What we know:
Blueprint: E1 2-5, H1 10-21, E2 27-30, H2 38-48, H3 61-66, H4 78-87, E3 96-98, E4 104-106, H5 110-118
Parallel strand pairs: 1-2
Antiparallel strand pairs: 1-3, 3-4
Amino acid sequence: MEIWINPACxxxxxxxxxxxxxxxxxxxxxxxxxxxxxEEIRDVLDRLGLEPWDITRTxxxxxxxxxxxxxxxxxxSRERWITALSAxxxxxxxxxxxxxxxxxxxxxxxxxxxxxxxxxx
Length: 121
């Protein structure tokens, strides 16, 4: 299992604390430093069952600079969103846990972290 985190994020720290408390085996990826490639983002989106706009932090400064709120949210625009997430990883919602069963969750709550743990994480 892998968790994408920003150490400055309280939700990320909370998720890691819970994983540790549960004795989970996992790898930490500081995704602002180890930036996911477009292919890795596509894989995580497939595992989440979501689209890139679903995991985009639209209140970040970079989102405003790019004008993301005005971008179409359709299949034809999907790659444009993925490219933006890879170029500006601070736009990626966090934390994201990829579970051993091939799924993933956006683990912003204790319930979501426990869901990932229940998936064989």
